[in-house]
Amino acid sequence: MGLCKCPKRRVTTLFCFEHRVNVCESCLVSAHPKCIVRSYLQWLQDSDYSPQCPLCQAPLGDRDTVRLLCYDVFHWPCLSGWARALPPRTAPAGHRCPQCGGALFPPPNLQGPVAEALRARLRTAAWARPGLGLPLVKSPPGTPKPPQRLPWAAPNPDSDPAAPVTPPEPPPNPSSPHAVVHMGGGETPTLH
């Protein structure tokens, strides 16, 4: 444990590997957004660190970054591209940190500067909005909408894709909509 050097002078276990100082979460977001930060005990065990994006291996200082709840840092375009490459119906719990497997989305009840900064960044990405419990972003005006598929229309590889789709014919009505079964005293049941 150590004391952060900021005016708040908070006791913290977080340690910036690059600047070799204790940092609180507030300073982590404001003054160390691209730094590798872990616990002080981890730094004592192994002070080696890689100031590169784990996804593209380029220096973190080259582009805009995002810090996850596990404190792993990625280039925002790299993390966003990685998340968009997941299957479209991936549940929010399936979005995990590519480096350590920690949760990508902060729980709704989690407060703090890192969680708030992450939520603010994720709100801007269409793929992340469902994971935050937010509605999807509407397409900008002028964006063509995908063709609507009718639920009963099955794709036919031999048909013309531009041809209109018509629903199948309903089944013919039976001549008599009801059947009467007599279940009388001791007789064999009969159908009328």
UniProtKB/TrEMBL annotation:
Gene3D superfamilies per the UniProt record, alphabetical: Zinc/RING finger domain, C3HC4 (zinc finger)
Biased composition (Pro residues): 164-175
Pfam families: U-box_ZFPL1, zf-B_box_ZFPL1
InterPro entries assigned: U-box_ZFPL1-like, ZFPL1, Znf-B_box_ZFPL1-like, Znf_RING, Znf_RING/FYVE/PHD
This protein's UniProt keywords: ER-Golgi transport, Golgi apparatus, Membrane, Metal-binding, Transmembrane, Transmembrane helix, Transport, Zinc, Zinc-finger
Keyword Chaperone: no
GO molecular function, one term: zinc ion binding
Stretches with biased composition (Gly residues): 183-192
Domain RING-type: start-end pairs: 53-100
Keyword Endoplasmic reticulum annotated: no
Domain of life: Eukaryota
Gene Ontology biological process terms from the UniProt entry: vesicle-mediated transport
Region annotation (Disordered) ranges: 132-192
Location in the cell: Golgi apparatus, cis-Golgi network membrane
Biased composition range(s): Low complexity: 151-163
One CC-aspect GO term: Golgi apparatus
Annotated function: Required for cis-Golgi integrity and efficient ER to Golgi transport.
Family under the similarity heading: Belongs to the ZFPL1 family.
UniProt remark on domains: The B box-type and RING-type zinc fingers although degenerate play a central role in function of the protein.
Name used for this protein in its record: Zinc finger protein-like 1
UniProt lineage: Eukaryota, Metazoa, Chordata, Craniata, Vertebrata
